[in-house]
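Folded chain entry
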Amino acid sequence: MNIRPPDLLVLLLATCAVSFGGEETLVEGSKRVVSPYTADFRGLSKATPSKTIVDGPLLGNGDMAVCLSEITEIGENRRVRQVANGPRFWLCKNDFWKLAHDYKTGPSGPRVFGGIDVTFPGLEGGSDTEQSLYEAVTVSNWAGGKSGAGVEVRSWVAASENMLVVELKATSKDVEAEVNLWVQEGNGSEVAQGGDGATRWVTRKFEKDVEIATEVACAMTMLGTGTSKFTLKVGEPVTILAAMQSRFKSPAPLDDVQKRIAGMDPAALAALRQAHAAWWRDYWAKSYVEIGDPVLEQRYYLSNYVMACASRDPEFPPPLFGSWNTTDAPGWEGDYHLNYNHMAPFYGLYSSNHIEQADPYHAPILDFLTRARWYAKNAQGIRGAYYPVGIGPKGIETTRNYPDDGYAKPPHFEKEGLFYFQRSNGAYCLVNIAMRWHATYDTEYAKQLYPLVRDIADFWEDYLKFEDGRYVIYRDSIHERSFNGHDFNSMVSLALVRNALELALDMSKELGIDTDRHAKWHHILDHLSGWTYQELALPRLPDEDRSIEKPKVKVFRYTEKGTNWWRNNTLAIQHIYPAGAIGPDSPPEELEVARNTIDVRNGWFDGNGMNSFYPAAVRVGYDPEVILAKLREMIRTKAATNGFIRGNPHGVENCSIVPNTINEMLCMGHKGVLRLFPNWPQDKDARFANLRVWGAFLVSSELKGGMVGQVSIHSERGRPCTLVNPWPGKSIDVYRDGKKVDSLQGDRVVLKTEAGATFSLVSSES
C-alpha cells in the first residue's frame, strides 16, 4: 500500500490556529494533549493465536498490521507454554483472505500470514512494553534476570508504506540473538520461502477452491548484521526491516518486496522514519478533546490509535477482529457482520474528523450490491437490495450454505443465504453512510453511494404494507431468529427505514435526481408506524432485597407484536442510536420513555452493543455524571490494555465507545442542529478542537467555569448552520477575519456561512 502524503489543504487546516484566542495551533494542541498517553503492558500475551481478539500491543497503518506476543507452543492438554525469550511479531494484512462464495468448499475469511520471531537465548527475565500513541512507536525492554543483560526492542509499522521496522539495542551487555521469518502453512494454502544470510522471503497464497486468488509476500533484511543469528553488541544496534505486499496491490508482490528491501539503507530508513512521524502528527491534528480526565482521555486516544492502525485500505476495511488475524479459523469467519458489528467501529471517526479511516467502511457493501439485488428479486420477489447477515470483501458471501450448527438452522436461510429472518441488514448498512454524508455533504461521495441508497429505498417501498392508514412491517425479526420470524413492526427496522428514506431524500435533492420519487418517500415517512410501549420493572442492584418489589416504568417495546424484550444486547435503544430516530428535539414524553429504557436495559457493560448504548444515553439527555462514571467503570473492569474489551468476542467494534460518546457529549449535530456541550456536566471544564458535525462544519470551543467560551465554526460547504444559542438570553456576535459581520438573537439561530470560511462566535456581553 503506497500512501500518499496529506493534501496541502489538509496540512494548512492542521496548522491553522484554534479559536481559543489563537494561542495554539491544532498541531501544537494535539501534541500537548495526546503525547503524554501510552499503552503499558507488563509482559506479552501468551493467548495468541486467538480466534477472536488478541491482547498484545497493536501496530499498523490501515493495510499492514502487526501484533506482539510471546513465542509459545501448544503442549499436552492444549496448555500454552513459552518456548523462547523474545517477541513474536505476527504479520497481518487487511486484504489477505480466502475468498470463496460457498461454505461447502471451505469457509472464507481473513487468514493469518506468518510472523517474525526474535529470540534472546541468554535472557531469563520477562518484558515490559510501552506504546507511544502520539508517535505510534512500541518499545519493549527484555530483561536478562541475574545476568544483568537486557535488550530494547523498538518497533513500528511505517505509516507511509507496508514496512515493519524493529530496532534492537543491547542496553548493558552483549546479547546473543536470532531472527526467524516464518509463514503459516496448511488449510489449502501454498507457501514458498527462500533467501540467505540476513535476507529472507516468504509467500502464502490461496488459489484452489476459491473465487478470487489471493497472495501476500514478505521480504526481510537486517541492517547491522549479515546473518540471522548474531551477537547484539552494546553500541551496535541491529535493525530488522520487513516489507509486505499483496496481489491486490501488485501483479508481482514478491518482486516488489525484494526490490524494496534491497533499496533500504540508513538514509532510506531515516526518510521512512520522518514520513511516519509526519503522518501521525497530522492524524492527531485532525481534532482533539481535552476533558481533564486522564482515564477517559487515554482510552479516547487509544481507540482512535487502533482505528488508525486498522483502517485505511479503501477496498478492505477491518473485519470483526480488526486487522490482527492470527488464525485460519476466526470466529464467525472473521467477516463483515451487517446487523451492527461492521458498522460500530466507525461511529466515532466521523465526529473525530478521521474521514480517511472511516471511508473503507462501504467498500464490501458496494461490492456485494449485485448479489443483494439478486436476493431481493429471488428470495423476496421485490426490487432493491437484500443483504444477508455476513459478507466478505469483493462480493464474497461468507455465510452461503452455512452448516446447521444448532444456531443457524434451515429456516434461517433463503436461497442458500443466511438471513435469520432479519430484513433490516441493508437499511443498517446506511447508518454510517448517513453519518458520512451529513458530516461532509460531499457530492462525489453521494454519487458513489446513492445507487445503494436508492436500492434500499426500493426494497422498503415494496416490502412495507400500507394498512389502515399506516405502513407496517411483517415477518422481520428484531433479533436473529426472534419469534420464529413473525415479529411485527420491529422498532429498530422502523427507525432504520426512516433513516434510509430521509437519506435518499437528502442525497437525491443535492444531486438533483429522482425528484419524482420524493412524494412516495414523504408519504411513507408521514405514515410509518410509530413506537409501541410496555411497563417493566427497574433492575435490581446486586445487594438489594429481592423481597421488595421494584417499581415499573414505561419503556419501548421491541416490536408491536412478537418479541417484547431481550435479556441482553442493546436492541432496546438502537432506534435511538445509531438509527437516529430520537434526539434532543423529540417530544419530552418520548425522551422520558427513552431514559426509562436506558435504566431498565442497563446495558452499560453489555459487550454486545455498548457502542450504541452510551451514545444513545447522550442523545436522550441521560445524566452526564452517570454516563461518565459508567464509562470509567467499564474501562476499569472490562478494558484490555491494547484498546479491545477483555473476553469480548466482537473485536474492533468497541473502539468507538469512548470517542463517540465524548464527542456527542461535547458537540452534537443531530438532525442538523448544532449543540455545544449539550450533555456535559456544567461544572467540569472541557475543550475540543475541530470536531465534525452535521452540515460539514468543523467546530471548536471550550467550557470553563460553567460558561461556554468563544466558538469557532469552519464551514466546508457554505451551508447554513442552525445553532442552539450557547449563551441563553444573550445575543451572539459573529466575526470573520477579525471583523464583526453579524449579530444573532434568539434561543436557536441560523448562521449564514460561505464555503471555506471560518467564523468566530462570542457572547455579546463577553
